[in-house]
What does this fold into?
Amino acid sequence: MKEKYLIIEEFELHRSGAVTALLERLLEEEEVYLTIRWKFFSVRLNRSLLERIASLLYEQGVKKEFTVCCIVETAQWKEVYRLRKVLNRYGFEVLLHASPSLTVKSLKKTGQKMLLEELRIVGDDYESLRKEYERLKGAGIPITFDESRISTEQYMEWFQSWMSDRDACWLLPFRGMVGYMLTGAWLGGCEHGSCLGKYLCMDRDGALFFCEKKLEGSRMYEISSLPGEQLYDQNYERVLGHAVEKRRRCQAECGDFPVCRGGCPLQASGQEDCQACRKKIAYVSLFLQKHSRNYFADTVNPVIRQMFLSTVAFGFIPEEHGV
It folds into this structure.
């Protein structure tokens, strides 16, 4: 079954018709699992808004017999907790942005009452990101951050420290690489995957992009003038062609392609970027191979041990990954 992701920024009631039209187009496709990521930043969450969103999604999903998973991304954690019964009733998952007022206690309390998919921390530099992670890791919620804000050396330093942390929670920038090396299955995000054609993003002005980050060349249509006979335009076909060519070249020339996946298809990766990525891959690979010889007996990181035991139990350990 194919996956598609629809990212919608700051849904407003007066634009519900445009959202419905786009959902109808996506749900016409057969064998599609649709994940909707609804981003709330400055719009205040309220019960009537959530009810309208749920009604809109589930009416379309039920009619077309599709499963619709809805994710709310918001920094308004107090509103999330206050409306948890509504969110739970309609199957909303929550990707939460950390804020100074968010504590481990409140995060644990929220996580016990509803499904928190992950927590995104922000910081100006490596030290502030590490400090924020240490402050909130005790809640046990998977944590992510913008990996581009840290250097290769800082990535490796943090990874080594994280591996020896008996109180660690999942740090998602490490999960993709570690998961592949342990299981042979890619668990990473869209930065390292063939994501074009899967992601659509409608911004608050109604413009449609095929990348949540709205990188150069990814703009498609104003949603209000979307033609009935096509969803993607010639610009998309051109960018997709370049992305396929780039990935094929990486696959043919680089032995680390299964882990790196060619990087973001919309960003041209230079020699320096590739060297940095390969350095990370080599470091993590050697680290895991060293510790796997004793079945991670000396590894105290609880999430690594859990993943390793799961891979052994289900027979996912591939020989070529040295584990």
User: Anything to note?
Assistant: The first strand starts at residue 2 and ends at 9. Confidence is low (pLDDT under 50) at residues 316-323. The two ends are 30 Å apart (CA to CA). DSSP finds twelve helices and nine strands in the chain.
